[in-house]
Every structure is written in C-alpha cells, then in structure tokens.
Design brief:
185 residues, TRAP transporter small permease protein, DctQ, transmembrane helix
Length: 185
C-alpha cells in the first residue's frame, strides 16, 4: 500500500536534519536581527538627508552589504530548515518510496551544482582578495566610503557555497541510509 497524501508541515522532515543544519538555523535566526538594524540605519539616513540636509556616506553601501549578506546566508538557512523551493506536482503524487529516490536524485544534482558554484566563486573571491602578484588587497567599492564590501561579500558567497556542499553531502548520506533501512525491511 502506498501513501499518496501530501506531507503535513509538522512531519519530522521539516526539522533540521543534523548538527550543521541546527547550527545554521540558530546562527541565521540571530543574524536575522540585522534586517532590523538595516531598517534603522536606513531610517537614520532618511532623517539625516531630508530633515537635516546632511546625507551620510556610509548608510547605502552598508545597508546593501548587510542585506546582500543576509540573503546569501538565507540560501543555506532555507536548505537547513527544508523550506527551499520545491516543485511538488510530481513529488506529492508519488509514493513515499519513490520520494526517497527523487530526494537522492535531487541531492546528487544539487551537490554537483553546488560544487560547480563553489569552484567558480573561489576564483571570483580570490581575485577580490588578492592582487595578481599574490599580496592581500581587498577589492573596495570605489565610492567615497571605499569599503571592502565587494571583497567581503564575494568571500562570504564562497564560504556559504562550501557550507552548502557539506549540507548536500550530509543530506545525501542521510537519504541513502534511509533508503537502505527500508530496503532491508
């Protein structure tokens, strides 16, 4: 007998699957407060610009960097919390056993894609952190503030993609173990 009912959101699959996922969720929940900080500094900029006619040189770039960084981290958070975008047209119409095979395919393809992105982001991050002769020299924005935000964001993207690769490996191992347990029964 196969179960063709859609999964309820309270099923254990919606919970973090390993210690890495739990750490990502915990850290991401703390970092999410930076969205509020970004709103406050943006409000500060509006007041300074339009009330006191004294615009800042740092708010726009800083808010963009914080927001961009949080959205990059949001990708691994969504995967850790199993809240990533999923096309469920086929997934919900098949048996639980078939879903397990679909999950393995998803994780293998996702792992390959994450590896390629991590590889590509390494060269981009490396170029933004080091001069052609190998000296540490962070790429800056070129604005009045001239902050190293571009280099920091590119470095963060590389780190997050490496974490995503590890997540895919851990999830794939868990899926294979889960599949083998049912095959043994």
């Amino acid at each position: 007998m196969t179960d063709h009912t859609p999964r309820a959101s309270s099923e254990p699959e919606e919970q973090p699957r390993n210690i890495l996922d739990r750490a990502i969720i915990k850290i991401s929940n703390l970092l999410s407060w930076l969205f509020i900080a970004t709103a406050f500094i943006s409000f500060y900029e509006v007041v300074m610009r339009y009330v006191f006619d004294a615009p800042t040189t740092w708010v726009h770039e800083t808010a963009s960097f914080i927001g961009g960084s949080l959205f990059v981290i949001g990708g691994i958070y969504a995967f850790a919390a199993n809240k990533h975008v999923r096309v469920v047209l086929i997934y919900d119409a098949v048996s639980n056993q078939t879903r397990k095979y679909l999950n393995i395919i998803h994780h293998v393809v996702g792992l390959a894609f994450a590896c390629m992105l991590a590889y590509a982001s390494y060269s981009v991050a490396h170029e933004s952190w080091f001069s052609p002769w190998g000296e540490l020299r962070l790429e800056t924005s070129g604005s009045v503030l001239n902050a190293p935000y571009p280099a920091l964001l590119k470095g963060l993207i590389f780190v997050v993609l490496c974490i995503l690769v590890i997540q895919f490996v851990l999830h794939l191992i868990q899926e294979i173990i889960g599949l083998r347990k049912n095959d043994d029964v």
